[in-house]
Structure formats: C-alpha cells, structure tokens
C-alpha cells in the first residue's frame, strides 16, 4: 500500500490557478467516491482551502496516473498545462507534507489557527463517505496530533493568526486610522467573523455584513453592532464603504465590474479598497481597470505575512522536530502494513515452488512408500523454511526502519513477488 499526495498551494501556484483546482464542499462526497470506484484509489481525502488544493490517496500502486486523471476530468483542464505548479509526494514524503500542513508551518500565515480545523473536516468528510479506512484515517489522525503538539509545545500559534488577520493588517496599512472608516464584509463564515472581530479591535465601528442568507448576516452583524443586508443590496453598500473584505464560497464573482462602475459613479472620486480572500475569487479582477479602485487578493498578502514568518522562524524548526518525531512513529506503523503481506507472499512462493518440484519428480518417486514420500516432502519443506528464515528476520527488522518501505519494496522486487502475483491473477 502506498500513500500519495497530489496538489498545489500558495507557494507553487498563483491564485488564478489555485481557484481553478478548488473543490467545493458539496462536490467532495462524489469526488471521493469516484476516486475510489473509477480511478483505482483504495482510500482518499481532499484538503481544499483558500491556499491549497490537495488530494491524499492510498493505493496499491505508487504512481499518480489515477489521481491526475481525476483532477483533469473533474476540473475540465489539461493537467499538463499546470504541471510546474503541482507537487507529488509518496509515502514518507506524503506524511511529512501533511504533518507540516496540520502544524501550520506550510501555511501562508505561519501558525494560522484555521488549518487544523480544515484538516479535521477533510478527515471527517472522508470518513463519512467511507473513504478513510486504514491508511488515510491513520495519517490524518496523526497529523491532527502533530498539529496539537505544535500549538501546545511551541509558540508557532502565538496570537490570533489567520488570513483574516492579514487582511485587517493590510487595511491598517492602507489607512492611518480605521475609526472613521466604514467596512463592508461579504460573507458570514468563520473568516468574516474573525475579520469583524479584528476590525472592531482596531477601532472600526461602522460596518455592514452582506450575505446570501440575510439571517446569517444579521446574526454576525448583531454580535458587533453592525448592519446586515442581502447580496442584492451590494451596490448601495459599495457606494458607502471605504474597505471591502470578501470571503464566500460562491462559484462565480460576487462583485462584478459593472456593479463597481455603478457604485463609483456615486462616490464622487473617493477611492475604494477591496480585499478578496476567497478562492475561487469573489471579486472580478478586471475592476482594477476602474479609476480609484484598489484591489488586493490572496497573493497580495505576501508583504503582510513576511514579517509573521520572520518572527516565527525559530518556532518553525521546533515544530519540524515534532514532525520528525511523529513521522518515525507513523512509518513504523506504515511499514508494518507491508511486512505482513510480504512475508505471506514469500511463504506462498516457497510453497508453490516446493509443489512444482514435487510435481516434476512425481514419476521418479512413484516407487516410494507413503512414509518415504512424506519424508521427502518434509525435507523439502524444512529446507525451504531454513532458506527463508534469515530473509524473514530481515524483513521484520526492515519494517522498523524509517526507510523500511523502500527496503521492503526492494525485497519484493528481488523475489519477483509483484510479477508472480500479477501472473497468478491473470
């Protein structure tokens, strides 16, 4: 069994590529089912956030053809066109990557608080569809443990860190003060809750929450003494706002160029600053061509989070030590999965060879009595057991090594077990 990861993130792909490979939450159950039933994966999980889209899979094969084919089919794109943006990890590297993700050191905002919850939700989605059985369940559970250790044993998560934090910090850089500004928050999810909280703490008192479900918008607005509107009232809100922060799960643009141009006609030249932290993006990027419009997206937050990374450089290494410790324990478990079937296959091969040899000499042994025939079989069986003893001891030892999965694969190839199994099944 192999553990595979295929994906991209903020380090390898710009937002216009990341949004093309984002998985909507409603699509994930069907995606997981198809990965198993049509594309050869034994297990699967999908981690899709504003900064990454990743498929984790357990498969008998160590290649990525099935995962890549599904990615291409689901998103209706030629994966070859975005090849430089994709990373592929196998076995130990795949586990290491997930552990780093869950611990927050692979995030745009180092140590962010949301990623651990997103990893847990990815596991729960996989479990609910029957896609997390043995390997995926184990590696994700261990990743969650790594994330918890990272936050309890280091200062990687010190303070309230998130993309929403970075967005509010950017707003603070744009304006000298926020207490005389009005903000428009589009969306009413966790990210907008954090943005509202940070804005209020920064001194902003005037804001409106716009959401497709007005009841949810009202609920969030009431918590911070703001106003609530439906998305149908966006144009009027754009006319009044100074800062817009948007994060929804909408598949299409929530703010279009037409809506912005209409709103700007009533602003009398006042600039409008928009921060789009959604993937796929909520705001049409062509509005950058409109006068007095300043649009920032996820990729523009790099300058804000650079200082965050610098402050936590020492903590990153401490977290990496935890990742390495937990990886050793996981690989001990993971390698043992390969040792059992390998030992069984080796014993089966020896038994088949023994049977073949007895068959070849059947004619010349016909004069033997039953007792003598049993003696010959016993001698052959004893010889095979002695011949296999040391290899079996070594296989059990190799399973406990960090690179055991590689060494066990070498043993499998040495005894031609894969080919033998293929021939038997055909």
Notes on the structure:
With 426 residues, the chain is of the alpha/beta class. The protein folds into three domains: 2-158, Beta Polymerase, domain 2, CATH 3.30.460; 163-309, NAD(P)-binding Rossmann-like Domain (Rossmann fold, 3-Layer(aba) Sandwich), CATH 3.40.50.720; 333-425, no CATH class. It is 53% helix and 13% strand. It has 16 helices and ten strands. It has a six-stranded parallel sheet with strand order 7-6-5-8-9-10, with helices on both faces. Strands 2-3-1-4 form a four-stranded antiparallel sheet, with helices on both faces. A hairpin with a 2-residue loop joins β2 (43-49) and β3 (52-59). α5 (114-128) runs antiparallel to α6 (135-153), α6 (135-153) runs antiparallel to α13 and α13 runs parallel beside α15. The radius of gyration is 29 Å and the shape is elongated. Residues 419-426 have low confidence and may be disordered.
């Amino acid at each position: 069994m192999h553990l595979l990861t295929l994906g991209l993130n903020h380090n390898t792909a710009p937002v216009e590529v990341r949004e093309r490979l984002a998985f909507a939450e409603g699509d994930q159950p069907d995606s997981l089912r198809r990965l198993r039933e049509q594309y050869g994966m034994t297990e699967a999980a999908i981690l899709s956030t504003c900064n990454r889209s990743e498929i984790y899979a357990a498969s008998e094969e160590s290649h990525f053809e099935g995962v890549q084919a599904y990615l291409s089919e689901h998103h209706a794109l030629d994966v070859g066109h975005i090849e430089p943006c994709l990373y592929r990890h196998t076995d130990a590297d795949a586990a290491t990557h997930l552990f780093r993700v869950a611990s927050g050191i692979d995030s745009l905002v180092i140590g962010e608080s949301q990623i651990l919850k997103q990893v847990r939700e990815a596991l729960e989605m996989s479990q609910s569809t029957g896609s997390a059985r043995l390997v995926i369940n184990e590696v994700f559970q261990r990743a969650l443990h790594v994330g918890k250790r990272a936050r309890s044993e280091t200062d990687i998560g010190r303070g309230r860190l998130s993309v929403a934090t970075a967005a509010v910090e950017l707003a603070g850089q744009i304006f000298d003060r926020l207490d005389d500004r009005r903000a428009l928050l589009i969306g009413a999810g966790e990210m907008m809750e954090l943005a509202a909280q940070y804005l209020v703490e920064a001194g902003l008192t005037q804001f409106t929450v716009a959401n497709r479900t007005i009841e949810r918008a009202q609920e969030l607005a009431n918590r911070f003494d703001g106003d609530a509107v439906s998305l149908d009232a966006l144009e009027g809100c754009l006319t009044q706002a100074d800062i817009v922060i948007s994060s929804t799960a909408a598949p299409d643009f929530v703010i279009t160029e037409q809506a912005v141009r209409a709103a700007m006609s009533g602003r009398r030249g006042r600039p409008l600053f928009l921060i789009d932290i959604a993937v796929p993006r909520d705001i049409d990027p062509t509005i950058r061509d409109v006068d007095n419009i300043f649009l920032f997206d996820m990729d523009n937050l790099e300058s804000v989070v650079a200082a965050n990374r610098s402050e936590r450089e020492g903590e990153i290494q401490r977290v990496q030590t935890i990742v390495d410790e937990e990886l050793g324990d996981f690989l001990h478990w993971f390698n043992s999965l390969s040792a059992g079937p390998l030992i069984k296959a080796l014993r089966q091969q020896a038994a088949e060879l023994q049977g073949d040899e007895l068959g070849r000499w059947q004619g010349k042994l016909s004069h033997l009595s039953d007792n003598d025939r049993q003696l010959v079989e016993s001698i052959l069986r004893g010889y095979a057991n002695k011949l296999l003893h040391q290899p079996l001891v070594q296989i059990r030892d190799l399973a406990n090594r960090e690179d055991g999965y590689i060494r066990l694969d070498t043993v499998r190839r040495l005894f031609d077990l894969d080919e033998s199994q293929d021939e038997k099944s055909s």
